[in-house]
Design goal:
The protein is mainly beta. Helix content is about 5%, strand content about 60%. The longest helix is centred in the first third of the chain and has 10 residues, at about 15-25.
Length: about 250
């Protein structure tokens, strides 16, 4: 299970799901996300992403009131290896916001996150074990480490546990990952909540249950797919509030 899959299987990063399906399809030119009312009507555009013929995301546009207010572009130094993420806010100058550094084996070893200044605000450093799996992820602000995450793996190469600590006095949080007999993520347990994942017969993730311990807070997400196994809609229900998102596609 790659680092991308870790994000792919978290409730708070469901926007990775359409991206994952598009990257597998490699014939998608654009995917557009709409926010709709609870019946799936009265929709307005939120985002449009553009992919090349290799399935690589190269442009993303965020919309407000039907107009683009944020443009994000991606450059690659080789296939599937992003080296720089640029952003442009309305008519402002294009600027780099994230730069990735790789070693000779193609492993991401450093991530530099920028704000309006020329100096990076955050610097994330990655180390790897002998199996080329991420072992530690340390986030630094200047020369000072502000968090450290350690990764642990099962015999199938899946992330089974992470332990993250925030400095100087944060308590470490342990996150546990569980998998079904087909090696798909079935549950993630945090210190204060858990998420459960359900799949259809074609291995598509179709439902996510979220439970926050000690409260009545429950969230459920349902995902529907088109005949090309691309996500066509996603509903997200938090207690009594229902959010409905639609996705449309253009193809090469």
């Amino acid at each position: 299970m790659t680092l991308f899959n870790i994000h792919y299987a978290t409730l708070y990063a469901q926007d990775f799901l359409p991206d994952a399906k598009v990257m597998q399809n490699k014939k998608v030119k654009t995917v557009t996300q709409f926010d709709c009312d609870s019946t799936g009507n009265n929709c307005f555009i939120l985002n449009r992403k553009y992919y090349d013929k290799l399935g690589q995301l190269y442009l993303s546009e965020d919309y407000a009131q039907g107009q683009v207010y944020l443009t994000t572009t991606y450059s690659y130094f080789q296939k599937d290896k992003i080296d720089t993420v640029f952003q442009t806010v309305q008519d402002q100058e294009k600027r780099p916001v994230v730069i990735y550094v790789y070693d000779a084996a193609g492993n991401k070893v450093e991530q530099l996150q920028y704000s309006l200044n020329t100096e990076p605000v955050l610097r994330t450093v990655y180390s790897y074990n002998n199996a080329q799996q991420v072992q530690t992820e340390i986030v630094k602000q200047g020369q000072k480490a502000i968090s450290e995450k350690k990764f642990f793996y099962d015999t199938s190469g899946n992330v089974s546990k992470t332990i993250e600590k925030y400095y100087p006095d944060g308590l470490p949080e342990t996150i546990l990952f569980f998998y079904d007999r087909l090696n798909r993520c079935s549950k993630i347990k945090y210190s204060d909540r858990e998420e459960e994942y359900f799949y259809d017969n074609e291995a598509n993730l179709v439902k996510i249950n979220f439970l926050e311990y000690g409260t009545n807070s429950r969230e459920v997400s349902l995902l529907n797919y088109s005949d090309q196994l691309l996500i066509s809609s996603k509903t997200f229900q938090h207690n009594d509030v229902l959010f409905y998102f639609k996705y449309t596609y253009e193809f090469y």
